[in-house]
Amino acid sequence: MSTAAKGRRAEHRARKLLEDAGYTVTRSAGSKGAADLVAWNTVQFRLLNIKSGTKYCGTLEREAFALVPVPPNATKEIWRFPDRCTAPSIEVL
Questions:
Q1: Model-level pTM?
Q2: What is the per-residue pLDDT across 59-80, written as a single tens digit (0 to 9) for each?
Q3: Residues of the chain with pLDDT under 70
């Protein structure tokens, strides 16, 4: 499986988890921006950077993501889906 397909699959898994938790989610497919997914409900916004398999968020990417301006009710999160794992590890910046 290509890395793009693996990443896309992880984004869809994250989207399903968020939608099941009551969030509205939009995916920026093919985007080279900081956030892969943006999720919101009536009280919170969440910007998510999704990683899959053995990929980790590099230092430069992490620093750029941390500098993205967001409203006070928003979080910036890095979700990592290790291989064959259904639950992501979540890091809130």
A1: 0.83
A2: 888 898 899 999 999 999 999 8
A3: 1, 29-31, 55, 85
Region of residue 84 (phi > 0: left; psi between -120 and 50: alpha; otherwise: beta):
left
What whole-number distance in Å separates Cα of residue 59 and Cα of residue 70?
20
For residue 67, count CB atoms less than 10 angstroms from its CB and return exposed for 0-12, middle for 13-18, buried for 19 or more. Answer: exposed
Q: Whose CA is closest to 80, among 53, 61, 47, 45?
A: 53
- Read off the tokens for 80: 């990592």
CATH number, domain 3-92, options 3.40.630.30, 3.40.1350.10, 3.30.565.10, 1.20.1250.20 = 3.40.1350.10
Cβ contact 68:76 at 8 Å:
yes
